[in-house]
Amino acid sequence: MSTKKYLVIRSHESEFPSPITFQKGDFLTVGEEYEGAESWGNWLFCSTSGQEPGWVPGQVIERFGGPGGRALDDYTARELNVLEGELLVGTRSLNG
């Protein structure tokens, strides 16, 4: 597994206390693709049983056609609370 180190240059506290979280194999309802000014590609608005809906990278979704899909990997949209100057180690990056 390849890792990359990141230095936090600005503190951040998440504003989303209940992000979408699911396990590999869970069924998803797949909605719209993100089309904002930021041009972030391949982010899909999804929901799954017992979770708040949220944005999910398309790479972790197996599409069935229509709105159905299944998770190809464990995923959480949880944002990290970080302080300026902290060092983070990343193991995987999806869609920025």
Question: How would you describe what is shown here?
Answer:
The chain is mainly β and 96 residues long. It is built from no helices and nine strands. The protein has strands spanning 4-7, 21-22, 27-33, 43-47, 54-57, 61-65, 68-71, 75-76, 87-90. The strands form three sheets. The protein has a five-stranded antiparallel β-sheet with strand order 5-4-3-7-6, with no helix packed on it. The protein has a two-stranded antiparallel sheet with strand order 1-9. A two-stranded antiparallel sheet has the order 2-8. 11% of the residues are buried. The model has no long low-confidence stretch (mean pLDDT 92).
Provide a brief overview of the structure.
By secondary structure, the chain is an all-beta fold. It has strands at residues 4-7, 21-22, 27-33, 43-47, 54-57, 61-65, 68-71, 75-76, 87-90. Helix content is 0%, strand content 39%.
